[in-house]
Amino acid sequence: MKIVIAPDSFKGNLTAKEASDAIEIGIRRVFSDAVIAKVPMADGGEGTVQALVDATKGKIVSAEVCDPLGNRIIADFGILGESSGDAITQKAAVIEMATASGLPLVPRNKRNPMLTTTYGTGELIKNALDNGCKMLIVGIGGSATVDGGAGMAQALGARLLDKDGKDIPRGGGGLEHLDKIDVSTLYSRLSEVTTTVACDVDNPLVGPRGAPAVFGPQKGATPEMVKLLDKYLDKFADIIKRDLGVDVKETPGAGAAGGLGAGLMAFLGAKLKSGIDIVIEASGLNQDVKDAHIVVTGEGKIDRQTIYGKTPIGVAKTAKKHGLPVIAFAGNIGDDSHIVYDNGIDALMSIISYPMTLEIAMERSHEFLANAVERAFRLINIGSRL
């Protein structure tokens, strides 16, 4: 029997690799001789770097960059290993923009998207290029910014100039002064790089569904700031079209991460793609499931929202291409979770075996997950003998 183990992390508790290890323990208590392929997964958000580094036997690299307010911090990115998927043909880096420009990096009383910048994300990208990477995978969830990726572009050498030919200030508010974009000083290695962005929202850059209106308030924007940022990003998009020849204003996903989606398309020629699809390709999951008998996945909570681009459904769809059954384990199974049965998951199992506090559940989650997997596979063993 060959079993593929492909869970997401159990957020705030187990990494995807730790969950994979616990699942293997439970399986081997029942099928000690099973051939097991462990493929830690993620959906493009938090945990994507670690999952892909673990899945491909890559490495974590640290770099000193700016946080959203310009303070120097240490942030990590990953370089994928030799066991990357078929789609990865060159040395590749995976970056979570939130490690440099994320909302948790800014104290609640200092959240102000007029000031916060994606400059640190640009520094991470530059560092990846300096490490010889020719492909970039960028996860853009959880930003503290609404600067359209202007700071990222500045960190990569682009000149964003006011009417006097001076560099505009960093932050969303700095775009008020933008008059011209000069990319003649853009980092030369960018021309050698292919960039794919993990993005699961289709918001345009501006307007009622744009970055300022939808995402601005959660980053600290007041109603007045939302109006101003929408105006500034609208002008930014017009100047990008005029000076770079790229139309990003209405492109689905351009508004992701406070408009970083637009910036990545404009300055790096990036393509936006579903996060889980990127991870499946990069991890080589499709190759592993070809000759398997069953697939095991899971994450911290499974409910109706799981069908919208979350890891268990992405894994299940891959498994179904080969006609394989899929079991999913979760710490919390929502009352509306039955919808996942129509989306490729054949069985749902809770790892909780008795009423307990969240603290206990998290403290002993590795143990509980292994035990739940053992129970499930003992049932499978019985079924195989009927």
Description:
By secondary structure, this protein is of the alpha/beta class. The chain folds into two domains: 2-39 and 287-384, Glycerate kinase, domain 1 (Rossmann fold), CATH 3.40.50.10350; 48-275, Glycerate kinase, domain 2 (Alpha-Beta Complex), CATH 3.90.1510.10. Helix content is 35%, strand content 18%. The chain contains 13 helices and 13 strands. It has a six-stranded mixed sheet, with helices on both faces. Helix 1 links the parallel strand 1 (2-5) and strand 2 (35-38). Helix 1 packs across helix 13 and helix 7 packs parallel to helix 8. It starts with a strand and ends with a helix.
Overview in brief:
By secondary structure, this protein is α/β, with parallel strands linked by helices. It has helices at 16-28, 48-56, 98-101, 119-130, 150-155, 211-215, 223-244, 256-268, 275-283, 285-289, 311-320, 358-363, 365-384, and strands spanning 2-5, 35-38, 59-66, 72-79, 92-96, 135-139, 159-161, 180-182, 194-198, 271-273, 294-302, 326-333, 347-350.
What key phrases describe this protein's structure?
six-stranded mixed β-sheet; 2 domains; 13 strands; single chain; Glycerate kinase, domain 2; elongated; 35% helix; alpha/beta
